[in-house]
Write a structure and sequence with these properties.
Elements (H helix, E strand, L loop, with lengths): L10 H4 L20 H29 L10 H5 L3 H34 L6 H12 L5 H11 L4 H9 L14 H25 L3 H9 L4 H29 L3 H7 L6 H10 L6 H33 L1
Helix pairs in contact: 2-13, 4-8, 4-10, 5-8, 6-11, 8-10, 9-10, 10-13, 12-13
């Protein structure tokens, strides 16, 4: 295209550099965040300090003190009493059982919703219910299970009246180990659904297609492709469920009272009004629980990082 110079323009004018653009605002040195950004996360740090770090530090100090405030290791020696060890053992069994069954049934539910070719409304409905049910605990959950599976609960009465089946004749009790484990499953299974669904979404369709093209079966796909990718996520989620059940107190106390000696109820009794009230022993019990849940959460974080690397 032939471009003619404007009238009166000389050749040097045509070759002159273009006018510089107006200077832009200077970038913050090092890309640092402004004070407004830090102000936005200030409530989080305040919450963590007031409700996590300071109480933990208070427990750690109190665990090494006696009633007069002097340094002692007697509180930790009392942790090895038979009653305290039994409480920890029962808590571990309840937490492990609810975590194992919660991980199993939660994984199956999530797989059915994500990979099972169900109607499209199933997945959002399941995830919505899981988000609500995973936070439904404490006294309301205990009351709901007593009204459902108690001696005069709805399901118990209907089964005895119309099916001739007496649930309590089998030795079942809602106030027992199995009753508490069953109650915990109400929030453990939905929590597992929420945790494992993103991992199932990470299974790429190309992997299944490649397996099919190479003549692999569905069992071989799950054995050699899907499960090696998923097992860190499943195991890590199971550890998180264990920690979640190990620290639960309101549901167990409202459901079983003192009939089931788990460590959270023993801790509550020591701090709030047991006949043999020993607040510092309660601090030592709490510190032991922090160690157990900390190890579980640490394992979950490590396995989650490994799962993310595997999916990449």
């Amino acid at each position: 295209m032939n471009v003619s110079p404007r009238p009166g323009a000389s050749a040097p004018d045509l070759l002159a550099p273009a006018a510089p653009l107006p200077p832009s605002a200077p970038a913050r040195a090092g890309g640092g965040a402004s004070w407004l950004t830090w102000l936005g996360v200030l409530p989080f740090f305040a919450f963590a300090l007031l409700f996590l770090l300071m109480p933990t530090a208070f427990l750690m100090v109190g665990a090494f003190q006696d009633a007069q405030g002097h340094f002692t290791l007697a509180n930790f020696r009392e942790l090895f009493q038979p009653g305290v060890l039994d409480a920890y053992w029962i808590s571990v069994k309840v937490s492990a059982a609810s975590a194992a069954f919660g991980a199993l049934f939660g994984s199956l539910l999530a797989w059915a919703a994500v990979q099972g070719r169900l109607p499209g409304w199933i997945r959002p409905t399941l995830l919505t219910f899981s988000g609500v049910a995973s936070n439904f605990a404490g006294v309301p959950l205990a009351f709901a299970f007593i009204c459902t599976l108690g001696r005069v609960g709805l399901v118990t009465v209907l089964a005895r009246k119309y099916l001739g089946f007496n649930l309590y004749s089998t030795g079942f009790s809602i106030l027992s180990f199995f009753g508490l484990t069953l109650t915990y499953l109400y929030f453990q299974i939905p929590l597992m659904v929420l945790i494992i669904t993103p991992a199932l979404d990470g299974l790429k369709r190309e992997w299944r297609e490649a397996c099919d093209c190479l003549g692999g079966t569905a069992g071989q796909y799950w054995r050699y492709v899907a499960l090696p990718v998923l097992w860190p996520s499943v195991l890590g989620a199971a550890l998180l469920l264990f920690a979640n059940a190990f620290g639960a107190v309101a549901t167990a106390y409202a459901l079983t009272g003192s009939s089931l000696n788990i460590v959270t109820i023993l801790l509550y009794a020591q701090i709030r009004g047991d006949v043999l009230h020993n607040q510092n022993l309660g601090y030592a019990l709490a510190l032991g629980m922090i160690v157990v849940t900390g190890v579980s959460n640490g394992g979950y974080i490590w396995l989650r990082a490994r799962a993310e690397r595997g999916r990449r």
